[in-house]
Specification:
- The chain has a domain at 273-369.
- It has 14 helices and two strands, in the order αααααββααααααααα.
- The longest helix is centred in the first third of the chain and has 28 residues, at 69-96.
- Strand 1 and strand 2 (180-183) form a beta hairpin.
- Helix 4 runs antiparallel to helix 5 (155-166) and helix 12 (316-329) packs antiparallel against helix 13 (333-346).
- By secondary structure, it is mainly α.
Length: 369
């Protein structure tokens, strides 16, 4: 069923946690700086720069070529042991070399990223920031501090860390207004931050605003994130989806459809099905004006949709098919018929045209008195 703006704040249920789409950023050395100095730990393998040990070798296949469940379990146990060994080695190194500017910062950051308990990770990050405030990896540390503070429920500390990277904060709304982003007075962004780190910081700023219901601020942050993130960033599809979701929750359905269009055109990856459904909900939404009553014209006959429907993207007929099904489920059968007819008229080569013809025939049958 389409998600009505006034009764449902959620978009389609995601098939995966959005946070999982945005893994921790690797602390890559900024351009013009020295490469990361490897900490001389003695265990093997050395932890990867992202903060996790190298993956174990593939389990030895059982006779016949299939890896057994026992072999996978053994490999997982070996990886867990190596992770513990890595943490112990790094902890010992930091105790022995607490202030070495060449190696201690890297050891602290790698140790923090190997720690799965936010309450234990945070002191490591704070030690880094206090001892090595001018280090080129400071931007990576602040990004991770923001994430950890958010996990621990300290929104103010998370916002402070993000402000160091973005020079933005959420401004309290004026009477009758909405919360927006504003520049932090006298702020200069941390030097050395990569486009990926700046984009992730903006995305996290958007997430905090979205969770607080500050949809204008969230949309602003997501747009800034998309402008900053590199094309291949794993966060881009997430930021694009959340921008569309924010606009939809705010009742701005045409901007939401435009955001969905950009996401699907650029490549939505694992979020493709959710993006199609979110866009279809906008087409099927009966109340674009926000007056709690169905609009006189709904579905594909809306004048506001004329230019958008003229698109020739390969994903458009699939989105319209989903919208037609939503309309049929909502008993908007005439609008569903028009949606299915438009798919067949303008997208004759659609791979699932036969399925659309079946849905059209069923909608027409139900429409007859």
């Amino acid at each position: 069923m389409p998600c009505r703006r006034k009764t449902c704040a959620a978009a389609p249920v995601l098939g995966l946690a959005l946070a999982a789409c945005a893994p921790r950023a690797e602390p890559v050395a900024p351009a013009g700086t020295a490469p990361v100095v490897a900490v001389p730990v003695t265990f093997a393998p050395t932890p990867a720069q992202a903060g996790a040990p190298a993956a174990p070798a593939e389990p030895t296949p059982a006779p016949g070529g299939a890896a057994t469940v026992d072999a996978v379990a053994v490999a997982s146990a070996e990886l867990a042991v190596r992770t513990v060994e890595a943490r112990r080695a790094l902890e010992a190194f930091v105790r022995a070399h607490p202030d070495d500017p060449q190696t201690t910062p890297d050891a602290l950051l790698r140790l923090a990223l190997l720690t799965d308990d936010p309450a234990r990770e945070l002191p490591l990050l704070e030690t880094f920031a206090a001892r090595f405030a001018d280090h080129p990896r400071r931007s990576t540390v602040e990004l991770e501090r923001a994430r950890v503070h958010a996990l621990l429920g300290d929104e103010r500390a998370a916002a402070h860390a993000l402000g160091l990277l973005t020079c933005l904060e959420r401004a309290a709304p004026a009477v009758g207004g909405t919360e927006r982003l504003r520049p932090l007075p006298g702020c200069a962004p941390l030097p050395g931050a990569s486009d990926e780190e700046r984009g992730r910081a903006l995305w996290q700023l958007g997430e905090a605003a979205f969770e607080a219901g500050a949809l204008d601020a969230a949309s602003d942050a997501y747009r800034r994130a998309l402008a900053a993130l590199p094309p291949a960033s794993a966060v881009r599809p997430v930021a694009g989806y959340k921008l569309a979701w924010s606009e939809s929750r705010a009742g701005r359905f045409l901007p939401a459809l435009e955001a969905v269009s950009r996401l699907l055109t650029d490549g939505a990856g694992a979020l493709r099905a959710e993006a199609l459904e979110l866009g279809a909900m906008g087409v099927a939404e009966p109340d674009w004006t926000g007056d709690d009553r169905p609009d006189p014209v709904v579905g594909v006959r809306r004048p506001e949709l004329a230019a958008w429907l003229a698109r020739t993207d390969a994903w458009l007929p699939e989105l319209l098919e989903v919208a037609g099904r939503f309309l049929a489920e909502a008993q908007e059968l005439a609008a569903a018929v028009e949606c299915f007819e438009l798919v067949l008229a303008r997208h004759a080569g659609y791979a699932h045209a036969d399925r659309v013809r079946g849905a059209l025939a069923e909608a027409r049958r139900r429409l007859r008195p």
